[in-house]
Amino acid sequence: MALRETQELAEYRSLMETPDEFEDGFGWQTVVGAFFIGFVMMPGSIYLGLVAGQTMGPAAEWTTIILFTEIARRSFAPLNRQQIYILYYIAGGLTAMMGGVALSGGAFAGLVWNQFLRAAAPGDLVSQVPDWVAPPPDSEAIAMRTFVHPDWLPAIGVLLITQIFSRVAWFTLGYSLFRLISDGEQLPFPLAPITAQGATALAEASSKEETWRWRLFSVGSMMGIGFGLIYLAVPTLTGAVLIQPVAILPIPWIDFTQGTERFLPGVPTGIGTNMASLMLGFVLPFWMVVGSFLAAVTTAIVNPIAQVTGHLPTWRPGMETTRTAWAASIDIWLSWGIGTAFAVAGIGVYKMVVEWGENKETGDTAGFGFGTVNVGRGDFRVAWMLGLFFLATTGYIVLCRVLVPRFPLVFLIVYGYIWTPLQSYINARMVGLTGQFVAIPMIREATFILSGYKGVDIWFAPIPLGNYGATVQRFREIELTGNKFTAVLKAELLMFPIMIVTSFLFWGYVWRLQPIPSVYYPYAQKMWDYQALTQWVWFSATTEGGHQEIFQRAIKPLLMVGGLAFGLGAYGLLNWLRLPVMTIYGWIRGVGMLPHFIILQFIGALIGRYYMRKRFGEANWRVWPPVLYAGFTCGMGLIAMLAIAIVLIKQSITQMPF
After folding, report:
1. What predicted TM-score, i.e. pTM, was given to this entire model?
2. What secondary structure letter does DSSP report for 166?
3. DSSP-assigned letter for residue 517
4. Cα–Cα distance for residue pair 49/632, rounded to 1 Å
């Protein structure tokens, strides 16, 4: 029997209809906008990441859109939604943030981090870090804090090559997965309409067609501005003039863990303080949120039992939320999550095979699960995309063989040609069903350690191990806004040189002003040492006498098998009983989340389903939440940007000698 598509999946799939016609949103406005973002927004994004550990995010994206919309409106050349979305796309790409060190501002942010990471190496390990990572700490380039030095040439060369390979790989595989997941499997992508509806609302405003979208977007923006004043502006501004900032609401949550550990040992408890999480509950599929809440309840039951029976040895009384969640992950949920992630992959493959079999019976096998080619949408040939991905992956492998010739070639082949597509497919299905990112953790660490390789250079090598599943949602957003995919390709070709040049200029400037980290950058000063020490614990595992205790504690084959069996069994049971199968996807998602955010989302889902739908009508409430949420994030972003601008002006005046 074929797997059925639930009514809820169909509902979220049709939340915003795919346009019948597509236009190219790339134009002169896009070019000007890209330069504006690179030369105006990027410095603020760099500073915000170093000082507060946050990205400009929605502030950069929506501020750019609103500014260019108003300019175009007064020039009697209003922007359409295709052009607005391309501006949004470029703003997000140029101000994106990397990893746990909260660095944004383009590719050269990684080089600043690498030079610090090399200097923080314990003992003689600093000499084992190759120069293609960063110059040695005693180099004149490091002492002068400048990229304009010959010692940086190897690192910059590797950086530029890997940037090209990575962009080709994510675009080609991401597009191929979009054709498979969206065109073929018709998954709902519940978060994709948020951006698409926001772009539609702004496009209507720019052409003076102020329909319900713009009015609702405005309501959400005012809500975001009001909440942002309390949540973001007050602590940011008071932190600039006082020794300690004043926070009306603790960011990002109120922690109850140490108070509840007497009767809930090993359970991270608390409640988030960001209203955006509650509003996200309006948008996400209801039964998916219910599944996540059931996962939070499950951890609250299982963790105390595991602690009493001695199966939670990493946890200690007095641990706060993050340490408690980390301990439970190491002892239980990491291995269980790996098993459930494989269950997601198995379900997806089975569904694809079943659908292909049905198509074969009817004689419709031309797409083999990739749907049909839409020439007006600017579709590319999937075969060509997969071929380019293969070439980029091969380039990665060749580069790694040059940089780390002693590392076993078989691992690089498995990483690039097998594991990256498989992991990306797992993540793409989770994004398509729940809007949430999922990744199978510790694969990189496990294979490095189990390979028997000795040396720290492999940890810095650009290995072909990626997860490009989340990019599938971007292609769905592009489709919903009526953009041709060729417009995004043009935008990527424009963004790359602008990103490289502006990142080189502004990171060099900021680094030259003051050492990083230092007292001038409090977040970096507080977090970089912690992140470096954590990473060097793993790096030392591939040296002589390295420690592997954490890895050995975390990987439990029996729990992996249990997670796999549970995922497959629960999905099959719900499908057989004709119950919402999205519940199990929500449960898998919830196991990896802190309950602080799940509680807010669950409250929002209940309010939306049992009050808002009755109050405003089901037909309206099906399409309102994405627009409302988009406006809310825009309002919060504008307030954050205004507060940071005031802080920057204040610090500039303070440092002036007159």
Report:
1. 0.71
2. H
3. S
4. 22
